[in-house]
UniProtKB/TrEMBL annotation:
Domain of life: Eukaryota
GO molecular function, one term: feruloyl esterase activity
Protein family (similarity comment): Belongs to the tannase family.
The EC number(s) this enzyme carries: 3.1.1.-
Organism: Neocucurbitaria cava
UniProt protein name: Carboxylic ester hydrolase
A Pfam family recorded for this sequence: Tannase
Keywords associated with the record: Calcium, Disulfide bond, Hydrolase, Metal-binding, Serine esterase, Signal
Amino acid sequence: MDAYWFPAPEKFEKRYLATGGGGYAINSGSRSLPGGVMYGAVAGLTDGGFGSFNTQVDAVVLKANGTINWDAVFMFGYKGIGEMTQIGKGITRLFYDMQDDEKLYTYYQGCSEGGREGWSQVQRYGEEYDGVIPGAPAFRYAQQQVQHLYANVVEKTLDYYPSSCELNRILNETIAFCDPLDGKTDGVVSRSDLCKLHFNVNSTIGLPYSCAASNGGSGMGGGPGGSASPIPALNGTVSARAAAVMQLIMSGLHTTSGKRAYISYQPSAGFTDATTTYNNATGAFDLSISGLGGDFVTKFIEEININNLPSLDNVTYDTLVDWMQEAWVKYEDTLQTTLPDLTPFQSHGGKVLTFHGESDDSIPAGSSVLYHESVRKIMYPSLDFNASTAALGDWYRLFLIPGAAHCAPNTLQPNGPFPQTNLEVLIKWVEEGVKPVTLAATHLAGEEVGKDASICAWPLRPVWRGGGGNGTAMECEYDQESIDTWMYEFDAYKLPLY
Ligand SMILES: [Ca+2]
């Protein structure tokens, strides 16, 4: 079933907007529809055929007999939104009595899983769309979902479960050290690549931490039930073992023989996947298995209808790589969503405006860079780096948002900007040919609240020169050493990982 919102006829601007969901949801309720109507667009959402608008795919992915419900997987993968758009465009033409030769501009906007869904539309229904905004996409699904368990396996392998107090001390120190590397001391790590090059997590060993007692709460990556035991006041110094855990997490998943299987979050991103749980009985912190990763392994890979893995016993780095490999093959044509040949979309004139918080703690920012580079190489094999980047940038632009978290500003780096007008920017690009050289953003909190900002397009990186005074202007620079920190070789697999 699909639902559409229609602007009043005098407000209709010959536009259609498809919307998507987040997590395991294929829609965001009616939250994302007013944004379309605001721009004179008919806006649509779908239930994917899962039974109701509130039913998420993980509730229907297993049939009663315990096998995969492939109809649901294909609908979630790309068909649900694609068919909604085809039907929605037809209804729109009829409703407003449009002539056959009148252009109906067609857009998509979504973030996270909604970002993956956006890419699914570019890859599978390229001719249907004129402009797509896939924010912080949860694509490369097999790797993306399983990698949520990586921090837990590091903790288990090293047998050390840091408290959130100790983790936050490391994180705060990372941000403090890396903040000025971009030339502007504002509490925002606008250059996580320079952070990667110059920050050594071992420098945090011995730093004191102290946290008041709390009622527990639960990290976003908390295990089943979000086990929220009260946590006593904590005092200590950052241990070498905690630094070792963080070092390994930040280096990304490798096989036990040292071959790279995936990337990690940028330094200065939160350590949500590493969240532990306090054990009242022992007075120690314990493993808290990431529900995002566990739910995927149990239902989508092992086909067992439980919401999380009961334990990580016998789960090694190699197990994670095996799960990634298995899910990749299993869902290559549905959920993986990294098809790098975008010829139908590109030749039809489609434009992609994509963004990713550089301090995203749920989907690594490097994931969006990896796909951008894959598309660049596949679409322009005979052009060198600069020429192919320029050619791709005519219709697909990636903006890394300094300091931003997952599809949102970052409370830990509140002075950072966030884009607020992406759909307007995309409409201008599609309908008036105004290419966003930089992306318009706004400071939504902090010292510069209300001020405008500009976001550099990948591979250019922001820098403030001239002493770092807050009055100095940002430049978008080309820095090969920084760019190289975003490039990886995935030698754990025989196939290329796009
Ligand atoms: Ca800074």
